[in-house]
Amino acid sequence: MGKPLAAIVLGVLLIGTWFAQPISSTSALTPRRAAVQYTPPGMVTEGVVPQAAPTWIAIEPGVLARTMLDPAGVRAVNGVVVPADNRPVFRTDSNEPGTDSPGTSFIVGHNYVDQSGEFIPFSALEKVAVGQSIVLGTPNGTLVYAVRQVIRVPKTQLDARTDLVENVPGRLILATCDTTADGRDTTDNLVVIAALAT
Prior knowledge:
Layout: H1 3-20, E1 56-60, E2 64-68, E3 70-74, E4 89-91, E5 105-108, E6 133-138, E7 141-154, E8 171-179, E9 185-196
């Protein structure tokens, strides 16, 4: 079996195992396999979508195509969140998104140009504007969020921004390092704040 095929098979097995396991001991629902429907941009979340860890993200119109999240999730360690690879990742120490979510959900990712010269997925956050739609897929259904703010926060001031970690029902925050147009780091974080569109 070739390396790419072996990696795909292993990835499918790991994702299948991940769907079958509870997300956390505090999770009210155990995620289950379900068909995930794509919601066109400009639409709203319809019906009840119980809380669950997100599996994919898209930003419409045309900012970020449907992109799978790292199923392992990530937690802050000593106040620092570092994704394991180039995929966006859900912070498992935040609230799982859903129409019944009591607080803020966080998805983080790296932002740079990889060795092949391609921008990785969360580099697309540089193009996000107020009013655009963020679509999240979960095992329980699809959620649509409307972008309310796009801000840059100096890394040295991030700890002081307690407003960003407050629990606000139905709020989604995407965060990455800010970069220049050619992919070089700045001293800021780029933060996208969105609200559930119902």
